[in-house]
Design a protein that fits this description.
The chain is an alpha+beta fold. It is built from eight helices and seven strands, in the order αααββββαβαβαβαα. α4 packs across α5.
Length: 178
């Protein structure tokens, strides 16, 4: 990571200083973890099962995530809430956090992340409806620019019954908000 040595020099640091000698190796390992989502295909993660005629809402909420803003290369983090109404198939519950990881471990913006999660579930399951809400804090808003520590950003993606049916959407929002 020769570029990292040059970066250190550009900000006035000595890349040969003891505390920075192993930093390029640590950064390389960190980058592999933070952006590991590029190496995974969401369709390989979503394993479906016969739904046993279950046709009510399934909600997994408070899935923690970390991602990296593509505009400022700063972290954003928060919680994802995912619901769907099966149409003959269900998904193993552990697949929801794994799906969130696939997309959040890429350079992202929150809007696209929300939509990608909803689209992936819709494409594989063909459910009667999918809903995704993401609530996040962005370090690009907290540590630079406007420097607002308490700001939260909420995005949603609604498909099928969640978009067309007010009662279904309201039930989802009520369950997410406790």
């Amino acid at each position: 990571m020769q570029n990292l040595r040059e970066f250190f020099k550009s900000i006035g640091e000595d890349p040969d200083r003891e505390g920075l000698l192993d930093t390029p190796k640590r950064v390389e390992k960190m980058v592999g973890k933070l952006f590991g989502g590029y190496n995974e295909n969401p369709k390989d993660i979503i394993k479906t099962f016969d739904g046993e005629n279950y046709d009510e809402m399934i909600l997994v909420k408070d899935i923690e995530f970390f991602s990296t803003c593509e505009h400022h290369m700063m972290p954003f983090f928060g919680k994802v809430h995912i619901a769907y109404i099966p149409n003959g198939k269900i998904v193993g519950l552990s697949k929801f956090p794994r799906l969130v990881e696939v997309f959040s471990r890429r350079l992202q913006n929150q809007e696209r992340l929300t939509q990608q999660i909803a689209d992936a579930l819709d494409d594989v399951l063909h459910p009667r409806g999918v809903a995704v809400i993401i609530e996040a804090k962005h370090l690009c808003m907290m540590a630079r620019g406007v420097e607002k520590q308490s700001s939260n950003v909420t995005t949603s993606a609604l498909k099928g019954l969640f978009k067309r049916n007010t009662d279904t959407r309201n039930e989802f929002l009520r369950l997410v908000n406790g």
